[in-house]
Task: structure prediction
Amino acid sequence: MSRLKTTPLSVLDLAPIAQGGTIAQAFDNSVRLARHVEALGYRRFWLAEHHNIAGIASSATSVLIGHIAGHTTTLRVGSGGIMLPNHAPLVIAEQFGTLETLYPGRIDLGLGRAPGTDQRTLQALGRDRSAGLQFPDLLDELRFFLSDAAPGQGVRAIPGAGLNVPIWLLGSSDFSARLAAKLGLPFSFAGHFSPEGMAAMRLYRHLFQPSDTLAEPYAMIGVPVIVADTDAQAQRLATTAQQKFLSMVRGTRLPMQAPVDTLEGIWSPMEKAAVFERLGAAVVGSSDTVAEKVEHLLADTAADEIMAVTDCYHLEDRLKSYSLLAQLARIPAAA
Result:
């Protein structure tokens, strides 16, 4: 049987701000997208923490998670991720304890160790470049605050203590894969910007130690996906994501750009190579093309779940892409 037809699908959203659009429109689009994929039967809708990036509005990630959860009913809503070294663990425990209390059984806490921004902004957040080295200790502290409070415990997360919000470790290298395996936590690989995920996914499974959280490893892969009526249409839509990564390569960080017929003459050969290196796992094309590519991806990574990232300038193109992907997986519509 096709693995795609038995693999859960989820969504990663950064509340993208389109060129000529507003932040309010970006938030409205995220709500519309969440409702759309919920009706299609997608499992999760995650939002990612980034700071000081002109095209991304999901900086106050916990706030936006609550907004999305409040406009949906069945989706698991969470972070993909919260960059833990940017925060005091007690504050994250309180924030996600609040979310779990408001939306019980629907909140995920995905954690990363990168800053999600540049060094200057990291300083503005009150952190330094060595903060990521503290990630294992910060994670231990966070898990302590989300576990049952001990008698006489002086500092508790209220709300948060005893709620055991599901924690995922996110990564673009083998560091988090190793840590997730050691702790028996689910792991999500950031294939949407670091395509070399096979080694990390296999390492996670090989090193996995059962825990009270998981008896067996569970790994999800984030991947750029665009499905359209034809390969040519999908390739044109994909120039929006290519322009996003081109702006990153150039250090300009532009809002989301409209698709173009070609980027030849706009990027240099070196820039083109750098963009395609970051988008090496992208799955772009018609339904038939995408189905074949996703099957290969699942065979290579043995992923238990796919988290699709679909960067399209027009919301309607994003909605259609997620609809076509759901049709490939034959996800039943929600009742």
User: Anything to note?
Assistant: Residues 37 and 322 are 7 Å apart (CA to CA). Residues 23-40 form the longest helix (18 residues). The chain has a mean pLDDT of 92. The longest strand covers residues 219-227.
